[in-house]
Amino acid sequence: MTKLLEWLLGVSFVGIAWGLVTFDLLDLQLPSVCKEVAWPIPVYLLVVFGCYSLATVGYRVATFNDCEDAAKELQAQIKEAKEDLKQKGLKM
Amino acid sequence: SAAVQVSSVMRSTNKSQQRGDKYSVLLPTYNERENLPLIIWLLVKYFGDSGYDFEIIVIDDGSPDGTLQVAEQLQKIYGEDRILLRPRAKKLGLGTAYIHGIQHATGNFVIIMDADLSHHPKFIPRFIEKQKEGGYDLVSGTRYRGDGGVYGWDLRRKLISRGANFLTQVLLRPGASDLTGSFRLYKKEVLERLVERCVSKGYVFQMEMIVRARQLGYSVGEVPISFVDRVYGESKLGGNEIVSFVKGLLTLFATT
Amino acid sequence: MEATGADQVVGLGLVAFSLMLFTYYTIWVIVLPFVDTDHVIHMYFLPREYSVILPGVAALFLLLCVGTFIGVVTWKNRRSKKLD
After folding, report:
1. Where in the cell is it found (chain C) (predicted)?
2. Is residue B250 in a domain?
3. How would you write B118-158 as a 3-class SS string?
């Protein structure tokens, strides 16, 4: 099953559950508070996902390591390599 | 002296030939006349120090700047058993470069990396150890976990990179933290099998390799690496790259 | 090895912003229906319909931006291909 199909399946389940509660399709006669909370849930889930995405990307940018040392080490090694290769007869 | 150094490299690698593992490093190059000697020097140094058996396969796509001539000089210095040249007439894809390169590879493991010094050979022994530790079919270098990281990226680049990676994780749930990285160690037969199944280009090709590897049940290990971007000033990450990345991602989402 | 100062500020700023947004929105959608309608807290929140309308408008705006971006990039691409 492709990832797309997995998503569609998951979304369908959530959608059906939401529809059942909001439109009282099973005639469950839930308290009106339940309906009140339920009807914005799909939008709520999207907003929460949006917040989660922003927070995750923000946190990962804040903790994205900057490798200063690696750059310095590379510079030093480049010098060393050029010297050594010159000695070995490389014409650059 | 140079002669003593070269022969000590050969002596220490003779030890690991008893273990039987040999590592073929694929270096696709295009206009890397300046960097090629440096990357090869570093590869020889770190393989020599660690004692693993190796060969370097340079796949030059008809570079107009004379990269191939430099490669020939390096072949004379380090030996034709260490430096193999598999040039091509013009710039063709990365996938075909890998296929072309492994055709004559004598190693049982293949390492792919960039030749522009953004990937440092010092991580290769860590890749090898990680592979032995878990028996992994492929080991991927990651910039996003552990003490992995980058040098030379501004805020915009970091935001785009993390944003794209987040989107990839949500859509594909790939079980690897860095999908667009191209510093990896593969078992040779694994690389062969994967390359023939992959159809994408550019960044997405590397993503597809890992996604297909998971599909086929291969195990993936990770090693944090530093990515030193010295080229960024010249080749920016533009709208074109972003749009084709998203297109490729959505294609993988819908087809795998 | 860490991220540089400016990157940390922006990143953590995003985290703080999304936490605040999440908290406000969760209270609005999930908590308020269980709170008496004469409680003072209702003053700080718009009528319930807006909890769906506002994100809806934001989403449309986002789609518009993304669509424009893709459109501009594709058009520039076609233009440079024609000139080739």
Report:
1. Endoplasmic reticulum membrane
2. no
3. CCCHHHHHHHHHHHHHHCCCEEEEECCCCCCEEECCCHHHH
Q: Give the range of the structural domain holding residue B198, as residue numbers without chain letter.
A: 2-153+177-235
Q: How many domains does chain A have?
A: 1
Residue A24 has pLDDT above 60, yes or no: yes
Is A75 touching B (CB cutoff 8 A)? no
- Alpha carbon dihedral A82, A88, A90, A92, in 10-degree steps, equals 20
- Other C-beta atoms closer than 10 Å to the C-beta of B148 total 23
Within a domain: A51: no
CA distance B228 to B177: 18
Q: Which structural domain range is residue A20 located in?
A: 1-39
Residues of chain A contacting residue B120, judged by C-beta atoms under 8 Å apart: 70, 74
pTM: 0.89
Residue B14 has pLDDT above 80, yes or no: no
Of C11, C22, C59, Cβ closest to residue A58: C11
**B148 to chain C, closest Cα gap in Å:** 9
How many domains in chain B?
A: 1
Answer whether residue A15 is part of any domain. Answer: yes
Residue B163 lies in a domain: no
Amino acid identity of residue C3, one-letter, is A
Best of A64, A80, A84, A86 to substitute, by most chain B Cβ atoms within 10 angstroms, is: A64
B68-94, pLDDT tens digit by residue? 999 999 999 999 999 999 999 988 888
Residue A52 to residue C8, Cβ atoms within 8 A: no
Quick check: C3 and A58 CB within 8 A? no
Question: Which domain CATH number covers B110?
Answer: 3.90.550.10
Scanning every residue of chain C, which has its alpha carbon at the shortest distance from the alpha carbon of B226? C1
C2 interfaces chain A, CB cutoff of 8 Å: yes
- State how far the Cα of B92 lies from the Cα of C84, in Å rounded to an integer: 19
Q: Note whether C2 contacts A63, CB cutoff 8 Å.
A: yes
